[in-house]
Amino acid sequence: MAELGKLESAVMDVLWRAANPLLVRDVLDAVTADRALAYTTVLTVLDNLHRKGWVVRDKDGKAYRYRAAGTREEITARTVRRVIETSAHPDLVLLHFARSASDHELHILRRVIDERESDA
Which UniProt keywords apply (predicted)? Predict the structure, then answer.
């Protein structure tokens, strides 16, 4: 994920694989298989991801349990949406994207347009 740093991406991978929300310690244990990290480092990363809207946290006693704010695909789509919306010329960004899209991507876009037109 281009918007995330290496450690943020590793933490998100852990959260996407998890069946249930995780404590900081759970995330730390999962990401330290490859490297040694401090608890506070993982806590800071999770706080940053929460601030960015990638992670949701729920209070559990004195701690928080963390989970991804959506699937990998949903969050990626939100990121693309944010890029388009924050551009000075969103229409041009969308045009450039559409012109660079593969045949497969255009097929998907056409399917969505057709669905919207049939619902109207």
Answer: DNA-binding, Transcription, Transcription regulation
Query: Which residues touch 45 (CB under 8 Å, ≥6 apart)?
Result: 7, 8, 11
Cα 102-81-5 angle, rounded to 5 deg: 90
DSSP-derived secondary structure for 54-96: SEEEEEETTEEEEEESS-HHHHHHHHHHHHHHHSS-HHHHHHH
At 61-112, the pLDDT tens digits run 999 999 999 999 999 899 889 889 999 999 999 999 999 999 999 999 999 9
Secondary structure string (H, E, C) spanning 32-61: CCCCCCCHHHHHHHHHHHHHHCCEEEEEEC
CATH 1.10.760.10 fits 6-68, yes or no: no
